[in-house]
Automatic annotation (TrEMBL):
<feature type="domain" description="VOC">
    <location>
        <begin position="169"/>
        <end position="283"/>
    </location>
</feature>
<dbReference type="GO" id="GO:0046872">
    <property type="term" value="F:metal ion binding"/>
</dbReference>
<dbReference type="InterPro" id="IPR018146">
    <property type="entry name" value="Glyoxalase_1_CS"/>
</dbReference>
<dbReference type="Pfam" id="PF00903">
    <property type="entry name" value="Glyoxalase"/>
</dbReference>
<dbReference type="GO" id="GO:0004462">
    <property type="term" value="F:lactoylglutathione lyase activity"/>
</dbReference>
<protein>
    <submittedName>
        <fullName>Catechol 2,3-dioxygenase</fullName>
    </submittedName>
</protein>
<keyword id="KW-0560">Oxidoreductase</keyword>
<dbReference type="InterPro" id="IPR029068">
    <property type="entry name" value="Glyas_Bleomycin-R_OHBP_Dase"/>
</dbReference>
<keyword id="KW-0479">Metal-binding</keyword>
<dbReference type="GO" id="GO:0051213">
    <property type="term" value="F:dioxygenase activity"/>
</dbReference>
<dbReference type="InterPro" id="IPR004360">
    <property type="entry name" value="Glyas_Fos-R_dOase_dom"/>
</dbReference>
<keyword id="KW-0223">Dioxygenase</keyword>
<dbReference type="InterPro" id="IPR037523">
    <property type="entry name" value="VOC_core"/>
</dbReference>
<feature type="domain" description="VOC">
    <location>
        <begin position="10"/>
        <end position="126"/>
    </location>
</feature>
Length: 283
C-alpha cells in the first residue's frame, strides 16, 4: 500500500535494550518468531525474511531494569501482511500459554504483549485503507474489543505457525514524551509529519502519506516525565527512513530552523526529540 516505502517517511528499525540478551533472544525467536541475522556477545539484529533487520536487541553494561514513569518506548509495532497471519499468531500464543491483550482500532486489529523485560510489543494487521474514516485531516481510531470469532475464521486450514511471515515489517512506534507542544513542533515542522489524530489532549498520532500513524506520542507517564537512565531497559533509538538524500538535507534544515541539531556519530545522522528520544535519519 506504499505506507512503508518511498516516497513515504516511515520507521524502519527499532533498537531496544534488554537485561539478558540470551533470555530475550529465546523469547523473540520462540514467541515472536523472528530469526537472528547478526549477533555479537552483547547485541543481535533480528529478521523475518533472513535478509533485512527491523529490530535490534542490545544488553548494556551494568544494565538497569526498566524504569517506570519515564519517557521512551511505549511500544513498537510489527505489521503482518495478512489477517490470517494475525489469526495464526493468536493460535500460536494460545498454544504457548502467553498472555496478551487485544484491540480493534478501526484502522487495524492488534494484539499486545510484553517481552521478558517489560518492553511492549504490538502485532497487528491493517484494514484496507478504503475502510478508514477520515474527518478532514484526522483519521478515526478507537479502542474497541477485538472480534476473535471473526478473526479466527481466517485461520488457513492445515497452516502451522512457523514464525513471523517474510513480509513482516516495523509498522510504527509509540513513545512516552514529557509534553506535546514542542513534541508536535519537532515532528511536524522538523521532521515533516502530519498530525492525523489527537487523542484526548494526551496523545498525538503522526504520519506521512495519509497512513493512520507511523509515530504515536503520549504523556501518559506524566507531563514532565524524566528520561530514563542510559543503561536502563527500554528503547535505545529508532530509525526514520527518508525517501532520498535531498529529503535528508531538507529535514536537517527544517530541524535547524526550530533549534534542533543533527549530529554525525560513527557515520550515522542522529537527532533527539524534545524528550530526548534518540532518532537516526537514513535513506
Amino acid at each position: 500500500m506504499g505506507f512503508h516505502s518511498k516516497p513515504t517517511t516511515f520507521v524502519g528499525h527499532v533498537n531496544i535494550k534488554v537485561e539478558n540478551l540470551k533470555r530475550s533472544l529465546q523469547f523473540y525467536q520462540e514467541i515472536i518468531g523472528l530469526d537472528i541475522l547478526e549477533q555479537t556477545s552483547h547485541a543481535a539484529k533480528l529478521t523475518a525474511d533472513g535478509k533485512t533487520s527491523f529490530l535490534s536487541l542490545e544488553q548494556p553494561e551494568d544494565v538497569l531494569p526498566r524504569q517506570g514513569r519515564t519517557t521512551g518506548l511505549y511500544h513498537f509495532a510489527l505489521l503482518l501482511p495478512k489477517r490470517s497471519d494475525l489469526a495464526n499468531f493468536v493460535v500460536h500464543l494460545s498454544e504457548k500459554g502467553v498472555r496478551f491483550g487485544s484491540s480493534d482500532h478501526l484502522v487495524s486489529e492488534a494484539l499486545y504483549l510484553h517481552d521478558p523485560d517489560g518492553n511492549e510489543i504490538e502485532v497487528y494487521i491493517d484494514r484496507d485503507p478504503s475502510e478508514w474514516t477520515w474527518n478532514g485531516e484526522e483519521v478515526a481510531m478507537t479502542v474497541d474489543p477485538l472480534d476473535f470469532k471473526g478473526l479466527l475464521k481466517s485461520v488457513e486450514p492445515g497452516m502451522l505457525w512457523t514464525g513471523m511471515p517474510e513480509g513482516t515489517i516495523m509498522g510504527h512506534i509509540h513513545l512516552h514524551v514529557s509534553e506535546l507542544i514542542k513534541t508536535e513542533e519537532f515532528y511536524v515542522k522538523g521532521l515533516g509529519f502530519d498530525v492525523v489524530n489527537r487523542f484526548g489532549g494526551q496523545a498525538l498520532f503522526l504520519s506521512t502519506g495519509k497512513y493512520h500513524h507511523h509515530i504515536g506520542v503520549n504523556t501518559w507517564n506524566g507531563v514532565g516525565a524524566p528520561k530514563p537512565a542510559e543503561n536502563s531497559v527500554g528503547m535505545e533509538s529508532f530509525t526514520l527512513n527518508l525517501p532520498n538524500e535531498e529529503a535528508i538535507k531538507e529535514t536537517i534544515n527544517s530541524l535547524q530552523k526550530i533549534g534542533v541539531s543533527v549530529k554525525e556519530e560513527e557515520g550515522r545522522l542522529i537527532t533527539y526529540d524534545p524528550s530526548e528520544n534518540r532518532i537516526e535519519l537514513t535513506v
